[in-house]
């Protein structure tokens, strides 16, 4: 990331050149200078507040510019924001040029499309159902140009293959930009109305509040994940197991769940089930968990309380859903000799059977204080031997298939968010056994 | 209860008068009224049934306000008067509320009374003067500014009403409630007001098409506020569960953390903490014993208040370290680790947690007249231990809720 490849520099230069070409006919147009200055200042202010403090970009002003000004003038609106914005990463000027040129081209294209469809008259005349057509087309053009240029910079600077760079860029941005476009349209209409720019400014307030709340949401969500992570780390440290056991169990559970074709929501719940399966060990004295020698029956009984402790702890966390029963029953065995309730066969909840297999697999393949790590193949053979008595054969087979397809690359994510575990290539369809 | 009766009574009076006048004089511009009625009803339909949020139906509120301040439709001056505004808003709100009542959710009389009174206020301020032509010389931007000023006034009235209602329902002090309501105006409150003004202006310029076009951004705001509320609720559940770890490990009696948190919140409200401070206080109270997880041997019955000061401080510091690790707001960790300091050096939240924790432990030990004896012990304790103003506030809170031992969860 330190050195920007030459072709990326060339790409940015080309985009900047195009932007300059777009602005060139400016002296020939009768641009309302004060409106341009006001919009540009407004955009810079919004970017300063929304973009820097909250993250994300704020398009309503840009799109209002595209609906109000001739294309050459509209292309100038993003300029001051890019020049005065603080850029943290080097090379500073290259980034500034990029941030000015990219939205310039997009706004120019939007204004061009909007003008060609007669949008400016529709805005002035408040020709209402029709005014939505040029505005919609302009939003589409805006998104297309943004996505195309973004894909280009990904391809040149980060060496992402073009096809992958463009995948999803457009579909992801279309909905939010469309909402911003409606706000921009309202701004433009009010701007041209007798009430003037003052009324147009009012449109920005709800949008700003929306951005602010959205940022709060993300902050709170990150804090929540950090808390869960801390909970898990506390268990890992207390248990003296190798670091990251819980997260690896989460990962293996996800692999099994995907292989079984569960939907995304359920896969996510199973990730949490795997991560939190041993949370009840917080309630077991550390002395017992770390004891080296054989356990007395009394001590064993206390340790075997941990699924119930864990269930008691997470009982009140509603988003965990099914994961709570998985935590309670992950030590049940298929033949009914497990604990805490001695359930057998189909009585054991499906998610608990998944977590049981994942837990045993990671216990075998990681180094413990009392045993060395075994290779993946040995562990799978061992699981298959116990399938039917201890484990559900369906889950064991799913794990074996998933391992055969993707291998076992436990990410060392003790310092990352649990949800940040890089998902393996999503399994698409084919549930029939793949050749190992 | 008098304030509650007063508000409900005057709302009923306003509604009855508005209905009577509307039946007498008929409805002007049915199309516009219908469009706004549908908007308000939809807003009510999508209102949140969940826990306490300041603005449960932003779309409905914005729609009602903009109808109250509507002066023209696509350039043509409108004729509707204030009683008609109240009638339509009332009818639409009731219609939108029917499915909620059908589903067995509690009827929202307070909400309706507030809506009627604030909308009535805005409409009475605006419509008679507008229909007499007083605002004709307010051209262009000045008119927009006028609308905004009216809305700010209305929002202030609404905040006072909301605080008065909350005060008479919960008996929490009025001042902090009003302050929290006013602070809430800056967030989604301002978005609702701005949307109300924009819709009124946009309909005046572009006709009724402006309504659906401008609903969308507000719906977006509503959506993100709802998601924010959801993730906050989830976070609270996680913290409460984390706090139960000590109970499950047998370090503290069942329900202790929850009871301390509830009582601390009540005391914090009584002392006039802001909502953000209350959140910190609640989290800190829930996790105040978490340092005991780091002990090798449990303290008997988790009664930390009886330990020597040095030991108490050590446990508090351990707890602070755990809380810091969990990534909760750093202010929470500060409260947890300073809960055993001499009270003069403590932040207010830490004083509250300390006093309430000691009360809870003492009251539990002492049996049937425990609460009274525990309070007495707190009052007589050495001056440096428990802050007198917190103990007095605790006494007030307890006398309000009757001096009984809460049922163990």
User: How confident is the prediction overall: mean pLDDT of chain A?
Assistant: 81
The share of residues in helices of chain B is: over 70%
Sum up the overall morphology of chain B in one term.
Answer: elongated
Please summarize the sheet with the most strands of chain B.
2 strands, antiparallel
Biggest interface, which chains? A-B, 58 and 58 residues
Count of distinct strands of chain B: 2
As laid out across the biggest beta sheet of chain B, the strand order is 1-2
Keywords (chain B): Hydrolase, Membrane, Transmembrane, Transmembrane helix
Domain HD (chain B): 255-358
InterPro entries (chain B): Cyclic_di-GMP/3'3'-cGAMP_PDE, HD/PDEase_dom, HD_domain
GO molecular function, one term (chain B): hydrolase activity
Describe the structure.
- The complex is a heterodimer of chains A (436) and B (409).
- Chain A has helices at residues 6-23, 33-54, 60-68, 71-74, 79-84, 92-116, 119-125, 128-157, 162-166, 169-192, 196-239, 245-259, 264-276, 286-289, 297-303, 306-314, 323-329, 350-365, 376-386, 393-406.
- With 436 residues, chain A is an all-alpha fold.
- Chain A folds into two domains: 6-219, no CATH class; 240-420, Orthogonal Bundle (Hypothetical protein af1432), CATH 1.10.3210.
- In chain A, helix 1 runs antiparallel to helix 8 and helix 7 (119-125) crosses helix 8 (128-157).
- The longest helix of chain B is centred in the middle third of the chain and has 39 residues, at 210-248.
- A two-stranded antiparallel ribbon of chain B has the order 1-2.
- By secondary structure, chain B is mainly alpha-helical.
- Chain B has two domains: 2-231; 249-400, Orthogonal Bundle (Hypothetical protein af1432), CATH 1.10.3210.10.
- In chain B, helix 4 runs antiparallel to helix 5 and helix 7 packs antiparallel against helix 8 (210-248).
- Helix content of chain B is 71%, strand content 1%.
- The two termini of chain B are 31 Å apart.
- Classes of the chains: A mainly alpha (436), B mainly alpha (409).
């Amino acid at each position: 990331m330190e050195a920007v490849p030459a072709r990326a520099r060339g790409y940015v230069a080309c985009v900047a050149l195009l932007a300059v070409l777009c602005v060139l006919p400016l002296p020939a147009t009768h641009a309302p200078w004060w409106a341009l200055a006001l919009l540009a200042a407004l955009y810079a202010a919004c970017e300063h507040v929304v973009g820097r403090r909250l993250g994300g970009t704020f398009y309503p002003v840009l799109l209002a510019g595209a609906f109000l000004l001739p294309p050459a003038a509209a292309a100038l609106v993003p300029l001051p924001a890019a020049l005065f914005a603080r850029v943290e990463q080097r090379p500073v000027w290259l980034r500034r040029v990029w941030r000015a040129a990219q939205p310039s081209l997009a706004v120019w294209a939007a204004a061009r499309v909007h003008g060609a469809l007669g949008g400016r008259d529709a805005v002035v005349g408040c020709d209402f159902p029709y005014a939505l057509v040029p505005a919609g087309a302009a939003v589409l053009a805006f998104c297309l140009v943004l996505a195309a240029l973004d894909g280009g910079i990904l391809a040149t600077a980060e060496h992402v293959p073009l096809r992958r760079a463009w995948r999803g860029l457009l579909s992801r941005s279309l909905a939010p930009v469309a909402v911003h476009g409606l706000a921009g349209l309202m701004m433009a209409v009010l701007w041209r109305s007798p009430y003037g720019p003052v009324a147009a400014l009012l449109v920005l307030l709800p949008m700003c509040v929306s951005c602010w709340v959205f940022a709060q949401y993300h902050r709170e969500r990150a804090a929540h994940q950090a808390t869960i992570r801390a909970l898990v780390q506390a268990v890992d440290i207390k248990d003296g197991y190798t670091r990251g056991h819980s997260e690896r169990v989460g990962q293996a559970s996800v692999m099994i769940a995907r292989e079984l074709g569960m939907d995304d929501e359920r896969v996510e719940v199973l990730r949490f089930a795997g991560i939190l399966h041993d949370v009840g060990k917080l309630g077991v004295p550390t002395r017992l968990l770390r004891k080296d020698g054989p356990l007395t029956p009394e001590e064993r009984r206390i340790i075997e309380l941990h699924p119930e402790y864990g269930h008691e702890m997470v009982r009140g966390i509603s988003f965990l859903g099914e994961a709570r029963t998985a935590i309670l029953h992950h030590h049940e065995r298929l033949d009914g000799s497990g604990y805490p309730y001695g359930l057998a066969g189909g009585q054991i909840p499906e998610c608990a059977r998944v977590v049981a297999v994942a837990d045993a697999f990671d216990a075998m393949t990681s180094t413990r204080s009392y045993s060395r790590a075994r290779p993946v193949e040995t562990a799978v053979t061992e699981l298959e031997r116990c399938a039917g008595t201890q484990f559900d054969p369906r889950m064991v087979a799913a794990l074996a298939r998933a391992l055969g397809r993707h291998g076992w690359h436990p990410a060392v994510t003790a310092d990352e968010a649990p949800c940040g575990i890089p998902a393996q290539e999503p399994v698409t369809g084919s549930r029939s056994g793949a050749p190992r | 209860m008098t304030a509650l009766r007063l508000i409900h009574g005057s709302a009923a009076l306003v509604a009855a008068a508005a209905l009577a006048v509307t039946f007498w004089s008929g409805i002007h511009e049915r199309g516009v009224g219908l469009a706004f009625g549908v908007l308000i009803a939809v807003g009510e339909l999508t209102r949140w049934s969940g826990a306490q949020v300041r603005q449960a139906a932003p779309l409905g509120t914005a729609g009602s306000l903009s109808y109250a301040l509507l002066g023209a439709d696509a350039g043509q001056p409108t004729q509707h008067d204030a009683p008609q505004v109240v009638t339509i808003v009332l009818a639409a709100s009731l219609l939108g509320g029917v499915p909620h009542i059908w589903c067995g959710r509690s009827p929202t009389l307070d909400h309706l009374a507030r809506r009627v009174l604030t909308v009535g206020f805005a409409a009475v301020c605006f419509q008679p003067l507008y229909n007499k032509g007083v605002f004709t010389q307010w051209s262009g931007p000045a008119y927009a500014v006028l609308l905004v000023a009216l809305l700010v006034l209305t929002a202030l009235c609404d905040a006072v009403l909301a605080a008065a209602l909350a005060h008479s329902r919960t008996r929490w002090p009025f001042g902090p409630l009003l302050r929290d309501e006013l602070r809430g105006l800056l967030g989604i409150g301002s978005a609702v007001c701005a949307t109300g003004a924009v819709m009124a202006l946009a309909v005046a310029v572009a006709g009724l098409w402006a309504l659906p076009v401008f609903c969308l951004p507000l719906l977006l705001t509503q959506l993100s506020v709802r998601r924010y509320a959801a993730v906050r609720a989830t976070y609270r559940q996680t913290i409460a569960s984390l706090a139960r770890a000590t109970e499950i490990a047998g370090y503290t009696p069942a329900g202790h953390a929850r009871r301390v948190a509830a009582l601390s919140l009540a005391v914090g409200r009584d002392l006039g903490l802001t909502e953000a401070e209350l959140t910190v206080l609640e989290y800190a109270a829930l996790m105040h014993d978490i340092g005991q997880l780091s002990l090798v041997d449990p303290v008997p019955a988790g009664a930390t208040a009886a330990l020597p000061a040095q030991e108490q401080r050590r446990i508090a510091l351990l707890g602070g370290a755990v809380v810091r690790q969990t990534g909760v707001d750093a202010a929470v960790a500060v409260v947890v680790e300073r809960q055993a300091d001499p009270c003069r050096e403590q932040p207010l939240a830490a004083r509250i947690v300390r006093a309430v924790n000691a009360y809870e432990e003492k009251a539990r030990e002492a049996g049937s007249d425990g609460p009274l004896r525990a309070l007495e012990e707190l009052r007589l304790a050495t001056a440096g231990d428990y802050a007198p103003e917190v103990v007095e506030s605790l006494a007030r809170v307890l006398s309000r809720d009757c001096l009984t031992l809460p049922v163990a969860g």
